[in-house]
Amino acid sequence: LDLSSKKLGDASACVIAKCVECNSVLTEINLKGNSLGKAGWCAIFNALRDNKANKIASWDLSMSNQGMKTDASKAIAEYVAVSGVLTSLDLSANWVGPELGICMSEALKVNSVLRSLDMRRNKIDGEAAQQLTAAVLGSASLEVFSGVPMKQLHRSFISSSSKARHGCVRR
């Protein structure tokens, strides 16, 4: 279902939420380029979270700067935590702050099917970045994080950890 750049707002998001809360056929949805705001995103992701029959496996919300603030970050993460079908999620370039990193780190601890997650170009730093890094490295299902294959990320992490233990890294 492609509803990208249709000038949809919060009211439209509530209608979409009603449609997805009982839908068991839809596998993909594109809502980029709309102005759904935090209330709209919360309604949609809460409906998906509560719909155990939902089959949406891929979300591309990149470069959408959709007004995903703290509440929406929590709703998205709660959906990711319980989704048994979501395999790809692109949240890049939404310029969301540390709350997204914290929420997603919690979701990754329990999600066992997400294979690709892109969170580039968000404002995740400090403790949130550390929590997200630990969750990403601990994920058994994640294959690609922000464009980097996890095998490569694990090798880099292990290599730098080993060098640090042996005094090879300058501080």
Structure overview:
A six-stranded mixed beta sheet has the order 1-2-3-4-5-6. Helix 2 runs parallel beside helix 3 (70-82) and helix 3 (70-82) packs parallel to helix 4 (98-110). It is of the alpha/beta class. It is 47% helix and 9% strand. It is globular, with a radius of gyration of 17 Å. The chain contains six helices and six strands. It has helices at 10-20, 37-50, 70-82, 98-110, 126-138, 150-165, and strands at residues 28-29, 58-60, 88-90, 116-118, 144-145, 148-149.
The helix/strand order is HEHEHEHEHEEH
% residues in beta strands? 5-15%
Mean pLDDT metric: 86
Unreliable residue stretches:
none
Please render the helix and strand layout as text.
Blueprint: H1 10-20, E1 28-29, H2 37-50, E2 58-60, H3 70-82, E3 88-90, H4 98-110, E4 116-118, H5 126-138, E5 144-145, E6 148-149, H6 150-165
Parallel strand pairs: 1-2, 2-3, 3-4, 4-5
Antiparallel strand pairs: 5-6
Helix pairs in contact: 1-2, 2-3, 3-4, 4-5
Write a concise keyword list for the protein shown above.
171 residues; alpha/beta; 6-stranded mixed β-sheet; 47% helix
In short:
With 171 residues, the protein is of the alpha/beta class.
